[in-house]
Queue: 2 jobs
Job 1
Amino acid sequence: MRVLWLLPFQLHLKQRAFQMLEDDDLVLLIEDDAFYRMHPFHKKRIAALMSALRHHAETLKALGFNVTFKRGDTTDILAPYSHDEILLIKATDTDVVTWQKNLIKSFSSVTWFDDAQFILSENSVKARLPKRPYKMDPFYRQMRKDFNLLMDGDKPLHGAFSFDKENRKKLPKDITIDPPLDIEPDAMTKDVLAYVDQAFSDHPGETTGFKLPVTHADAKALADHFFTNRLDTFGPYQDALTTRMKDVSHSMISQALNTGLLDPLEIVRDAEKALDDGAPINSVEGFIRQIIGWREYIRGVYLLEMPGYHSVNHYEHTTNLPHYYWDGKTDMRCMAESTTHVIDDGYAHHIQRLMVLGNFANLAGVDPKQVNDWFLEMFVDSHDWVTTPNVMGMALHADGGVMATKPYISSGSYIHKMGDYCDQCSYDVKEKTGPKACPFNALYWNFIERHLETLEKNPRMGIPLSMYKKMDPNKVIALRKQAEWIIENIETL
Ligand SMILES: Cc1cc2nc3c(=O)[nH]c(=O)nc-3n(C[C@H](O)[C@H](O)[C@H](O)COP(=O)(O)OP(=O)(O)OC[C@H]3O[C@@H](n4cnc5c(N)ncnc54)[C@H](O)[C@@H]3O)c2cc1C
Ligand code: SF4
């Protein structure tokens, strides 16, 4: 007999392993609390994976598969199948692969498959990133050509591969955007939510307000609602920060993609079709780039850079992650908005993650491992393969530039330019020193001062470095003192 053992984020219906199964073969789904305790994950993340796995058992049964769903210890549940042929989907996260391998090491027959949640196979994505430093743009252009997406023959549709310059607008005051689709939990999800509340009460976050997709149909409804109601505004306001709408015009599909409830290639083909219905090219191209570009690229970088990626610390940062990442209690409005969103929903959109939460941690010199652990534990869409390169490489530049050409650091002026947080903050974004000065400002210039030698080697840092060098020496001293005070008193901001 063949036994296909699936993990809670391997729910793609086009896993190649399904083709190997015959009538007597089995699909095995295991609900093991220890799996959800590998890290202190957010309750909503646990509930989403648990409920999706339970629903998947029903979906596969309805499709005619012979399904066994069991709760308990994975080792005990797998033991009776040690003489059968085990089929496994290889996880991308290295610690999960190690766990999978340990569990089946004494089994007589094991066949591994690539995970269908990615467009490229493991070998193909690695081959497309020939050497360090990796570059996203050529990778993305090649993906566009190879999968014939937004192409006009061998030329990019509308004359450019990227319309990113049109996608940096602040949200106008009078605009309204439909919120993302709320998915009402069904009876099975409600059971899971009650169970998670009781069994994982020591984990962060709450299950209240759970509205995540847990079936393929839910996920498709969420994506379709985005295409109809939110894609047009996705492009221009992709980088916008606002207190008015938590999710601006983002798709909210990352958790569904990373669980296998949505197929990345189908999603981008749907986005391409939306062009025919009048969706603007900057929105469609921007969205497609995130998935065939960034998502696949990030996975490739992870595969090539592990196992060392967890311990990179290029800037030798050692500050502890301050309490507001866990309780949202800070006078910095941008940080309060972003951390509260994460604590409540296990979500923040890309610019909150990169330019608020990541940027602040980097400027304040927080130990990268603590930052990475927080992102891994607190987000509903987290998986080591996607969280770690985004945190270590993109947000913190802790890998020294292996995947991003420059550190994504900014003073308060960028946050001010992109939204309305600063208008409602106790700190003054225009002030650089003094008790009311925006902490991002002094920290930014101090980051440049502290890492001047390293940053001088980076041609993309030319403008801020020349501004720093032209600064009045007294101002430099005042900024340094202010930054030192902030770092010493980081818990009080
Ligand atoms: C510090 C930091 C941590 C992050 N951690 C995660 C994480 O744990 N899990 C995760 O899925 N994404 C992560 N991202 C990437 C990105 O922020 C999220 O994918 C996105 O915010 C999810 O929301 P959305 O579905 O509304 O995305 P949209 O903005 O609507 O984008 C559409 C899709 O594109 C993909 N995508 C976009 N940017 C990236 C990227 N940089 N890397 C990989 N995929 C991308 C996602 O699948 C996303 O669903 C992180 C980014 C940063 C800067
Ligand atoms: S003033 Fe500074 S701390 Fe306050 S919201 Fe703006 S950037 Fe954030």
Job 2
Amino acid sequence: MARIGIAGAGVLGRLLAWRLARTGHTVSVFDPAAGPQPPAVGQIGAAAPHAAGFTAAGMLSPIAELDHADAPIARLGWRSLPRWRAIGDALGGDEPLVRVNDSLLLAHGSDRGAAQRVLARLDALPEAPRAEALTRVQQHALEPALAPGLLAWRLPGEGQLLPRETLLALAQQAHGVQWHWGCAITQAQPGRLLAADGTAHAFDLAIDTRGLGARPELVLRGVRGELVWLHAPGVALARPLRLLHPRHRVYLVPRPGGRIVVGASEIESEDRSPPSLRSAVELLSAAHSVLPELAEARIEHLESNLRPARADNAPVIEHAAGLLRINGLFRHGWLIAPALVDDALAAADIAAPLETLHA
Ligand SMILES: Cc1cc2nc3c(=O)[nH]c(=O)nc-3n(C[C@H](O)[C@H](O)[C@H](O)COP(=O)(O)OP(=O)(O)OC[C@H]3O[C@@H](n4cnc5c(N)ncnc54)[C@H](O)[C@@H]3O)c2cc1C
């Protein structure tokens, strides 16, 4: 068994810690955050950066993401889905953290071309089931609140998770891990992590999952994303919706307690300030066009954060003796993390055989 140090307790860092600790490795994790709990609502975007993973909508949508992403991302996502199901089962909890069932891809009639472009790209993922075109009657049976006149396809196999709750559960159930909260790592080097207070921590393997905090050792940019939490207990929504639109890529994700999260903008900016009026108006009007009953929803919260991305928007795994870096998860981090962790651990020749995760 190895002594492993992880810099960064976001999506990747916590998933790695949970998985490696379950295998019996000795794991230490370092993060400048005050603790494992999600930041209080309203705190994200304030002075200290928080993990992008807390802000995410939690869509697990390899098929719909083909609108933005190339086939390798979709394949990583498709490989990750059964792992997420197994991880969700292992983490347990009163409310299921992970749901893998289906989602709907929607377009207004005038945007049929945009929809056909995405559907044509599904050929890049032959392992996924075909999208099912839905008649109005079928749409109504699945989602009674959908606006009439929409084009809709069911994407079997897609899913969603609860990001804040999953991050907390991973940390709480990574038994035996030494958590160093309030501790920023300034450099990740082969076999050691250098902390901001000047201390050096030695390991067999140092893993760098600091997201944007890995700069300047990795060349990365932040891509701003904004989303809105709605409280709409009267609006029935059973599954995530994705609206294809020439200007906006909007999704609506049901959350417990009558909430619906509407996201997300994608802006080439590292501005962490609160969402703009323009983004809020655009996201909410697109959402209202899909679910007209949202007119009386209450706006609970707006949030922005930065997605860590490389120039080509593709993830990177870099391995040299004693050092593993994983980064650039961009807008698909939750979706692809489990398969990427598999590939990274294989590259570093670290055993973490959790057969139950390979359902
Ligand atoms: C608005 C929005 C919506 C999104 N929606 C989705 C979605 O629906 N589905 C999906 O799959 N993905 C989504 N994403 C993307 C996803 O959140 C990211 O891809 C993912 O969080 C990246 O994971 P990570 O572990 O690399 O980085 P992060 O989650 O950002 O974690 C990085 C961690 O490193 C820590 N850190 C930073 N600096 C240091 C340092 N010096 N020392 C130690 N630790 C440090 C941070 O505190 C943080 O905890 C969304 C992102 C945004 C912003």
